[in-house]
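tool=predict chain=A
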Amino acid sequence: MLAGTLGLLPGGPLRALETPAATYKLSAAPVASFRWFPSSPRVGERFSLVSTSSDLTSPIVAFAWDVADNGPFGAFLPGGPTASAVFSTPADHVVRLRVTAADSLSSVAAETIHMSDPPQGVLRPFPTVRIVGRLVRGGIRLSILRVKAPAKARIKVNCSGRGCPVRAQRRAATARAARFPAFQRFLRAGVSLTVRVSKGTSIGAFTRFAVRRGKLPVRADSCLDPAGIKPIPCPSG
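tool=predict ok
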């Protein structure tokens, strides 16, 4: 007898034994993706975000968007397959979408939105300020403070509030992004950072970043007056 294949039944001939069919449950995380219109929005222009996410094994039941441009500090806000946003500067901005399927699996897509060229008189390419870290008890632990700006632009970071590691740092922009390691550490609630990027008489970039107790930090981005001192609204062109 071939074990597991043939068997001798009482009073009958050899016949094939039936083997129970195996059952497999296929499950995979959804594929998160999205598009936006117009493809290169202007400063102050509201643009649309549209999910193109898919899942072959389970329907997508939840969408959450992060348009705060705040790295890991950004909060995903519950929403639907479409959303809209407005940006206040002509810098590159990162938008994230998290989708969750009925089987509780989820995935995240992140895309960089390139804004339309700013009008004459505005620093080009417009500086980008990257701030990355995580919430901890009593404040945040900053892991990255990096500024990408046109060569020879002046970058100044000021710190205010109790617990500042230093009060100010300056850098001249080069081909590589400028780093500010003095601030890449624990910053207690109440500390505020301001980043100014200027060059000649061009309109520059201004970022304010405030640490709050038990809450996400607040970030505000705008332009910097040609004198390199005061924040001003960015022209839309």
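The two ends are 86 Å apart (CA to CA). The chain is about 0% helix and 45% strand.
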